[in-house]
Amino acid sequence: MSAARTLAAYVGAFVDELAKNGLSHAVISPGSRSTPLALALEAHPKLRVWMHVDERSAGFFALGLAKATGKPAALLCTSGTAAANYFPAVVEAKLARVPLVVLTADRPHELRDVGAPQAIDQLGLYGTHVKWFSEMAIPEASEQLLRYVRTAAGRAIATASGGPMGPIHLNFPFREPLLLDLSSPDWYRQGERADAYVRVMEGNRGIGKREVERLAAACNGKRGLIVCGPQDDSDLPTAIAELADVTGFPVLADPLSGLRRPGQGEKILDSYDAFLRTSEAKTALVPEVVLRFGAMPVSKTLTQYLSTYSDVLQVVVDPYGGWRDPVLTAAEMVYADPVTLAQALTATVRARASKEWGHTWQRLDEMARAAMVREAERQELSEGRVISELVDLLPEHSLLFVGNSMPVRDLDSFLIRPQKLIRTMANRGANGIDGVISTALGASFSFERTALVIGDLSFYHDLNGLLAAKLHQLNLTIIVVNNDGGGIFSFLPQAEGSSSASFERLFGTPLGLDYEPAVRMYGGRFTRVKSWNDFREAVGGSLEDGGLHVVEVPTVRSVNVAMHRERWNHVSVDVEQYLQKEAPTWK
Amino acid sequence: MSAARTLAAYVGAFVDELAKNGLSHAVISPGSRSTPLALALEAHPKLRVWMHVDERSAGFFALGLAKATGKPAALLCTSGTAAANYFPAVVEAKLARVPLVVLTADRPHELRDVGAPQAIDQLGLYGTHVKWFSEMAIPEASEQLLRYVRTAAGRAIATASGGPMGPIHLNFPFREPLLLDLSSPDWYRQGERADAYVRVMEGNRGIGKREVERLAAACNGKRGLIVCGPQDDSDLPTAIAELADVTGFPVLADPLSGLRRPGQGEKILDSYDAFLRTSEAKTALVPEVVLRFGAMPVSKTLTQYLSTYSDVLQVVVDPYGGWRDPVLTAAEMVYADPVTLAQALTATVRARASKEWGHTWQRLDEMARAAMVREAERQELSEGRVISELVDLLPEHSLLFVGNSMPVRDLDSFLIRPQKLIRTMANRGANGIDGVISTALGASFSFERTALVIGDLSFYHDLNGLLAAKLHQLNLTIIVVNNDGGGIFSFLPQAEGSSSASFERLFGTPLGLDYEPAVRMYGGRFTRVKSWNDFREAVGGSLEDGGLHVVEVPTVRSVNVAMHRERWNHVSVDVEQYLQKEAPTWK
Questions:
Q1: Which domains occur in chain B, in start order?
Q2: What integer pLDDT is reported at residue A587 of this predicted model?
Q3: 3-state secondary structure A185-200
């Protein structure tokens, strides 16, 4: 067999097995050493290839594809610093539990650590931040090596998509010549089996009847709470709503939990971040048991509330044996499938919480929501209201992606009682401001319409990501909340504790950039709005048109802080008055 | 002591000790967890702080500062993916031997691996790509911890700047509150000594007299060559020129060796890349001994020539015990200071190579040079000639930074017999196309005038880097050779070995971007030139004005390949004719 046919058979078997195991997308950055895999991915009939020049953006783009589909996406780059550019996306994927198959081309052994060009130490490059690393063999087309490479491909997909999902890394040494002979029609079929080479099945973790009974007993008739943080299981919202009905427990539903949706029921609360700020509410609402699902919620107020009651039975449910408890208040860790567990508890719990318990939470939630909405409506171009305005404009089943720092907190405050089903997403693994545009673009492929709300620093950080919109004709409306700098820092003690010059220099970091020309460079349309009418027109129009649109909402950091504080003050006043009048009797 | 004063004393002692050990520059990206170090770096009277929002660009900017000054630069970012964004610059710094002090803020132990926001595993984050990693203690201001933190700072600088220079990483866990009390005038002077806390001295490696004599004997009267790759020791060019005089060995001088300079002497050759392509030259020029200094040269032709003569005594000199020999032809590795060694050999060698040996190399070099210049002069806006035009325009002592892929190869071909002293630089550690703008901007601070020659893909990759020019009013003239895609791939077998559609898609990767608006966004001036007259006017004007200027030279990939091949053909014809007429007699 010629070298070019050997190479084709080896990489062909590999990419074919990726496809047979359900991979559909590969994001490739140009390079020479990666030629064999690039040509094979491009030529395989079942794979779609996305080119992206900047590997950092490419990494996040693949992350977005995988987040939206729930299935692994592949990444391919050449040797050298190209691979190091994937690191931020890999870190995010590990913590956010998103399946990625990272393929890096490498020099063969004889060109390593001897000063050869573009040769860096790629073994274990991502350290503890991948679920699996393997250094692949030098390509051969023997029967054994075809078995090996098909097994490795199947295992890569299984490991990336097994719980908890996450990134894996395979490093491929290639010797020159790097060209493939793809002339034989079965170049990718060597050593194949009819279906996947190895079929991988993964069992669900359930827990025993006795344990369920014990947990149910701890809930019976108690002042309980259900907390549901960011999570992706589409069956969980219903299971939790049913559990809430049976237990009478209010559900504190994170904006990324999937629970904030049309007809969500009174027990599903969404404005707790506002009313739990008041010490009266925090003191009055003494729980006896807390059931926690999903990752840690966005709300810092909720975190502080939970850590206040560290001696209360707090149960953390995780299907995959993580330890998602930064407040360190968990008394029980339950490693079991959340839906199965919630259903089992629903079937077992026998006594509901007192009416007053649920009623108080619901009243406070309604009150906070009303005050927040009332205040937001009075204000022109405030940051938070962007979310509610956007939800009004987005068609059903759209994706609303939010950046970290302020936008995700605004989503928490203003994604309230939505009248349509909107999928929400954010990069909440490591909460970075990097790669957000690219992740949203990758995810946008799975939705008819996608909107991204992002701050100006985060927008600047991933400007390069916009290239994908141009190259691949994607539909994305980006709302840039532009307060010319790092708005979130104005909420921190640093804002008062350092001199205003060094605060502005180190934290405010105004960039003074007009993004319009950059957006145009990538073929997007840019609109700077001055009023909510402008906003509705620009966003509405963009959603009709499709393509890339950037709508800038200029705001002022100090005004924003003042608005938020004013809103919270109004909520406080209402909450305090209510609690004074109708003091709960359970204490 | 209040918590804020304790924290100030601890981080104050640390940054003070960095300064006392010679650190002058710190590049900071905004964040909350890093507040203590950010405020301390900003407030210390001897340190200059550079803000940069994108940590990837910040990393390369610090790399540039350190490359140009030869002294460590510090980096500081907050916890999370921010730190992962430094990875490409860290990898480059390790391989290019550039001193970097990477400081990352981290959550304290109780917030790690429990789902806390922006908490990732930062221990050993950069793996084998740093020289030293240390997890720092939780701040205290005890006498022992002040000794500890001063020692750590001194050791950080000593390790980064000890040979081979490179990056080190310190990870700082900080607990809230994060504010410092800087009201005491001696906040940074706790535990100080008059000078550095520990003075670190590093000896030079010399080799014994007997070994020098043995090496000199191997050179006496032999057909020898000196190869000098990229290196930064400003004393080495003179030492090598003297060694060349005594031995009669031609010197193949890489464009990044510092040897191509006014009055470089006939023995210092710069056009070998062109004439060593011809098999006649390769066959005729049989060496008996090769002395190699510096990193591996840029010229692939030279690499191939060296590997042809793998049975010849090839001696690789490295001051720091590396293994810079990708051709695997070294018979001797000499770990000794190159200047000391060259001077010792100069003093010991007793017989020169035959005149004919040196003469043949010089004639071929002149001939190749003449043909290259002649061909370049006939051509409008060819890629290579950019270098020679630029050298004409740049003032003495300017910096000429080149990107990887084509520009550094063009520098190799066209930085010939310069009539003025121009410092050359490139990122030749990992040869990445990433971070090039930022590295050049960081380096530009040490020069009156700096020009960067870069391809369009590499320019796109680090567009964010331009922000530093705006924020810090730096002077940089960027020449973007825009062939709309990856020009170097057209020289590879992939260009012929794959279908033209998939070649263009996977390797050509045309982006179709007009960079003018993006450059304007960063406050730069943009000029697209159509002729060499335009070029001279635009570049000349930019060097007078200062500030950020981007001059685009549009070229066509296929034309460029044809031009290069035509030039090489002309050289071949001349070389073959010469070697047929005047066949060397040493065979």
A1: 3-173 (3.40.50.970), 209-370 (3.40.50.1220), 383-554 (3.40.50.970)
A2: 56
A3: CCCCCCCCCCCCCCCC
